[in-house]
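[Q] Does anyone have a clean structure-token version of this?
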Amino acid sequence: MDDETARAALKGHWDASDAGDFEREHQIYHEDAVLDYPQSGERLRGRRNIRESRQLQPDRKRFAVRRIVGSGALWVTELVIRYDGKPSCVVSIMEFREGLVARETQYFADPFDPGPTRAHLVEQSG
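[A] Here you go.
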């Protein structure tokens, strides 16, 4: 899979995620894909389990991609996921095999207020 095709597949995945299109969202995964959530210590095995875990979440999710970077088999997406309006900053690391995602690791972080001691050094980024 060339980089342009991988980037298009990722864009389609995140667009489908934002639209709540579970069928299209999960086409990117291998049948035996593994998804890790390091903060909760959870590991999901298999596209079917990944999809079902997301369908069972009761909250409405919205996805805003900030950037997608990568090359070859390794791609990183930086995004904001809003769960019922509450933002969470997310980094998704996807590893491709044979044109599909074989492994994904997602890191989540809640936003926090800027530090007052560095206020004179920074600008607000969004």
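[Q] Thanks! Anything notable?
[A] The mean pLDDT is 94.
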